[in-house]
């Protein structure tokens, strides 16, 4: 009986904690207006982002002074100027010598571009589509949202483990959460950043239609891809269709320049 009462007290405490978190930690993503659960403060996520960025800069060669490096800095500066709600951010746009066609963003306004991206981003406007997308991740606080989601998932699995005393059940639920929540959630963040990025690049004076060309280039590169339901990113073909749906919204800002 004492054990039951103890478990009930644990469930009640966790339930109350979860309710408090849901009530106090909800924010709204820019442009989309999607409600978010974020348990990490802006100060905490920025500190983590800056630390991670410094480590990357120490481990990966930085390219400076080239035409491509100057383009990254120029486009990044142009887009970051039109972003609202970034007061206090110390934006930094760095070109890294890495042949992988990729870019990344970290909290606090730290954005990295690999040299390999220029094999796909053929024009300045296409680069703007990439940087707008990455800045969208920063402004929507997607990194903090992912950390918060993982924290909430771990809390739920801990409660389940205490309730069932079954590690097998916890493992099954954990796998289901990855396929049913984590991966689709990541894909939704990518799509959200595409939409936000289109508006940012349009406001900065870049034609948002270049994003369609960019992802057509990615699709042409091809290569082996994971099954759609296991991918953390939308397939290029799906991405292009969603981008086309959001183009009228973005073009309204572009035509206003």
TrEMBL record:
The keyword Acyltransferase does not apply. Residues 70-245 form the Peptidase M48 domain. One of its GO terms (biological process) is proteolysis involved in protein catabolic process. One of its GO terms (cellular component) is membrane. Keywords: Hydrolase, Metal-binding, Metalloprotease, Protease, Zinc. Coiled coil: none annotated. GO terms for molecular function: metal ion binding; metalloendopeptidase activity. Binds 1 zinc ion per subunit. InterPro entries: Mito/Outer_Membr_Metalloprot, Peptidase_M48. Its cofactor is Zn(2+). Belongs to the peptidase M48 family. This is Peptidase M48. The lineage of its organism: Bacteria, Pseudomonadati, Pseudomonadota, Alphaproteobacteria, Iodidimonadales.
